[in-house]
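Researcher: I'm preparing a figure for a lab meeting and need a structural model of a single chain. I don't have an experimental structure, so a prediction will have to do for now. The sequence is pasted below. Please return the structure as tokens so I can convert it later.
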Amino acid sequence: MASPSLRVGMIIHSNSVITDVGSLCSELKRRGVFIILFANGDTTFKPHYNPQIHPEHLASLEYDKIVWYRDTSHLAEVLQEEKIDVTFSEEAIPFVYDPDCFKERSYKIFNIVHSVDNLYKKAKKSQTNIIDLSFVPFEKYGEYLDWDKADYVALGLPKYDVIASLDPVLIRKKYQLPEKYILVLVPNNNLLNWFVIYRIVRELKRAGYKAVLKGKHPKCDKEIYRLFSHKYFLSEHSFYPFVTHELIAGSSGVIGFDTTAIEEILMCERPFVNFSVKPYRASAAEEGNFKQFVPMWQAPFCLDIPFFDFCSTKGLWKPLPSFIDHFKKTFDYKMIQRDVFREPGGASVRIADFILQKLETEDKEKSKEEVT
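Model: Understood. Here is the structure written out token by token.
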């Protein structure tokens, strides 16, 4: 049990962060830690995901207090005023944007990576060296990004601690979904015409599957997707548990378009058909931002189909490559998880153990110094 005086902050710059820290909040509360949510009150920031505009999502978190901040300078003030010991950030946000605001601080900043944005690299390059430590899913993650080993600890990601509790039967009942459906993750860019997605959905229906589509604001919020899918969801439906995780877990398989949700699909252990549409994927993998996904795209559970020539007007009517049979295959997901990422579960416990032990050790060392 932690000291009741221990105060931990969780920075909720967007409701999407709730997915990343929900399990960790629960674990810290279980240990008696006082948790403060520092929530973004700037309503001009991502309105669909803004905690001030949509505070109902915060109810899914376990915490003791909410403090609203207007901007980074105000956040710096309230973090000091609340006398926290530690605060958690997702992808170094918002510290990376204005690190000078946090030069003078009495607390530690721990970062939880989201696995694609990698803004922590920019934060470390700043003169203030603002982030104390990052928690990453696996050891090679830091190597992919050329981080120093002292900058990160590979304890896993809390957002995957809930995977084991996702019951496919209950999920389908909750959302009134059929027993046999394929989840299609609509690309949040303009690389692919909606008509190609319609043709893919038509192939699914011919094979006896229902098609459930999931997108996110702003580009995916189109009535056309609702018209030809069995059901259509957007990300803000739920963040903890995250609706994407639920829909994957309830499905018979997933179709995506170079989506980085391949990570979630692997964690939920579903076959994945990836239609590769991003012309910048290869260069991004070389530069590091997609490097961690390359082994997943190459793993057996993923059928990776080059699809660039379907993005043009001429390609709209090309015969679709065969992909339906992939959903009938079985794979050793645990082995793939160990090879390219890590098995889900237990990250919140490991991170809580780590920070509490670290703070206790530092307190003892400080006490020794005061005595001498």
